[in-house]
Specification:
The protein has 606 residues and is mostly beta strands. It contains 5 helices and 40 strands. The strands form 10 sheets. Strands 1, 3, 7, 10, 13, 14, 15, 16, 21, 24 and 27 form an 11-stranded mixed sheet that branches. The protein has a 5-stranded mixed sheet with strand order 28-29-31-33-35, with no helix packed on it.
């Protein structure tokens, strides 16, 4: 169901605004080297650390001095200005961009603009045109962060000027404080195309008004130079004394406004005055937005009256001023403002514990000093060295600081309890490894390799089975090598079993050769076996087989009653000749197994 909020402030007049107090104003001439005290302009130095000052090309210089310099950001993916907001209020914020071919590449970049963790707009800069973006936003703390985020690898964000100033509570009463309101249009109708109103001091509230004369409408000027009364939104007098009227008293003024999104919610403010004093003629018309009647208007001479409406819009928004049947004069309009509501604002920023932990790191290491703003929001432009998950609140789950040139001792950031990955490798960190790292409840991966840590690896890390850690490349770090239990068990079982099988195989192969050789000697052939040579006619008694691995088997006669030695390349085992060969085989195999498991260094028995 559509919700309409309507207010006519023809009866809410205020005297002309007094000179505006600019005490809490911030006006940054981005890229300037010196402060211009006459206009209240300051350099970037108080508000941001990162970035580089540049001047636009000489051929692109314009009369607005603040736009001839800019600040460009080529290193970090997000760079944030911190603008002080000492009192709770709604603030106007304006960011202006003029590329001016400062880099001689003729490639104006595209990037994102953000405020307090919310996306403001995608900025598409031009080679020659000026882009200015404004919004109205109620602060939520002591500062508002305005960030420029790189969205294309080779397109670097820049900014020419940045301004912030507070608004009285009475202004723009129809704007909800729960949303930000982005300026979509602000027109000064009836002015010549060169008569731009460029903010303060012409407009006490620093608004920029674009001169416009719509087709088929007639420009007119008031026959007075100043107003007696004006509305609570305090438009500048020069924007009111110029106006446009319809062709005749029966014609409708119809104005159309387009938006980048299909569905929008818009706040419309219209301003009127009677440009001449008419005794016997009247001017009255109805104000409509998207075919919805808002209010009847009867402009007053030398007074500025106005009305506003909030309207949901699909596609283009249509504003109409329809004449009443008894009106003697055609509809008239002096100025209009159109603001578009933002998407719902972020209610919860990154966890305060994580912000505090990151602040510890940033304040410890100069390489991180330029990082500010919300690290996790918006979620498509988080800081390049963190990872975040969740939204109630967002939590920092990873730190990727490998190769950042960090040096010195690692500070305590134990409040970052959601960390799952910490990569601090390839730096110059020294001192002991902090105990708290092993106590982070969610930590899974810890890379401290190639630093200069010293001392012992904390027990909290060594005994934490959930953490996989890397500490190689720290020459002064004393740590026992982790034992691979699986490998140890495998080797303990595998090597003895393998040796047993090898010994058994060698033994049986040798035994079979020995039996064959014994048969030849028994018939007194006296022939050589393998590479061995018969030593003469054998005598009665036992024969010894001396197996020499790789060199054949040598047969030598042995006196009766002596043991027959059998040797292999891995040792020797002696057997009495009177035993049954099959029985000896079983006994010797059992002995082999016993010796292998009982005494790995023994290769036989007497």
């Amino acid at each position: 169901m559509e919700t309409w909020v309507v207010l006519l402030f023809m009866v809410f007049f205020a005297q002309k605004a007094l000179s505006q107090d600019t005490t809490d104003w911030v006006r940054i001439d981005c890229g300037a080297e010196i402060t211009d005290t006459s206009g209240g302009w300051q350099t970037d130095d108080e508000f941001i650390i990162t970035g580089k000052n540049e001047e636009i090309s000489t051929s692109s210089h314009i009369s607005i001095e603040q736009l001839n310099t800019l600040r460009v950001f080529t290193t970090q993916n997000k760079n944030c200005y911190s603008l002080p907001t000492p009192s709770p209020a709604r603030y106007f914020i304006r960011a202006t961009f003029y590329y001016g071919n400062y880099d001689d590449l003729s490639k104006p970049p595209t990037f994102d603009l953000e405020f307090d963790g919310n996306k403001w707009a995608t900025v598409e800069t031009s080679l020659t045109d000026i882009t200015d973006l404004e919004l109205v936003y109620a602060n939520r703390g002591d500062n508002i962060s305005v960030c420029l985020a790189r969205t294309f690898h080779d397109q670097f964000p820049f900014i020419s000027s940045l301004e912030l100033w507070p608004l009285p509570d009475s202004m723009y009463a129809g704007m909800s404080r729960d949303l930000a309101w982005l300026k979509s249009y602000r027109y000064n109708y009836g002015a010549n195309d060169t008569d731009w109103i460029l903010g303060y001091p012409t407009d006490e509230y620093n608004r920029i008004w674009e001169p416009v004369i719509p087709a088929s409408l007639i420009p007119v000027q008031a026959d007075f130079k100043s107003l007696i009364y004006t509305t609570v939104d305090y438009p500048p007098e020069s924007a009111i004394t110029d106006a446009v009227i319809a062709q005749s008293e029966i014609d409708t003024i119809s104005l159309e406004f387009n938006f980048s999104k299909t569905d929008t919610f818009n706040h419309v403010v219209v301003y009127f005055t009677e440009v001449s004093f008419y005794i016997n003629e009247t001017r009255s018309f109805d104000f409509y937005v998207n075919d919805k009647f808002i209010v009847t208007i009867s402009p007053q001479y030398e007074n500025c009256t106005g009305a506003w409406a909030n309207s949901p819009t699909v596609g283009a928004m249509k504003v109409e001023l329809r004449p009443l049947v008894d009106s003697d004069l055609p509809p008239i309009i002096s100025a209009i403002e159109v603001y578009t509501a933002s998407d719902p604002l972020v209610n919860i920023g990154t966890s305060q514990d994580d912000l505090d932990g990151l602040e510890v790191l940033i304040s410890t290491f100069e390489q991180l000093e330029g990082w500010s703003g919300d690290p996790c929001l918006p979620n498509d432009t988080i800081w390049q060295w963190v990872n975040c998950t969740g939204n109630d609140p967002p939590r920092v789950t990873s730190l990727y600081l490998s190769g950042y040139g960090l040096n010195g001792s690692l500070p305590d950031f134990s409040q970052m309890q959601a960390l799952e990955i910490i990569n601090l490798g390839n730096n110059s960190l020294d001192g002991p490894i902090p105990e708290f790292l092993g106590q982070l409840p969610s930590l899974k991966l810890l890379n401290l390799s190639y630093n200069n840590f010293s001392g012992e690896v904390p027990q909290s890390i060594k005994k934490n089975k959930k953490i996989k850690y890397q500490i190689n490349g720290n020459p002064d770090l004393h740590h026992p090598k982790r034992k691979n239990i699986g490998l140890i068990i495998g080797l303990t079982i595998g090597i003895p079993v393998g040796l047993i099988l090898l010994f058994a195989l060698l033994y049986f192969l040798t035994r079979r050769k020995a039996v064959s050789s014994h048969g030849q000697v028994a018939i007194g052939m006296g022939m050589s076996q393998g590479n061995g040579t018969a030593q003469g006619k054998p005598q009665e008694g036992n024969v010894s087989w001396v197996g020499n691995a790789g060199n054949g088997t040598h047969i030598n006669p042995t006196p009766a009653g002596e043991n027959i030695p059998v040797s292999t390349s891995v040792g020797s085992i002696n057997h009495p000749s009177s035993e049954d060969p099959a029985s000896r085989d079983r006994e010797e195999l059992d002995e082999l197994i016993r010796l292998q498991y009982g005494n790995m260094g023994t290769h036989g028995r007497a």
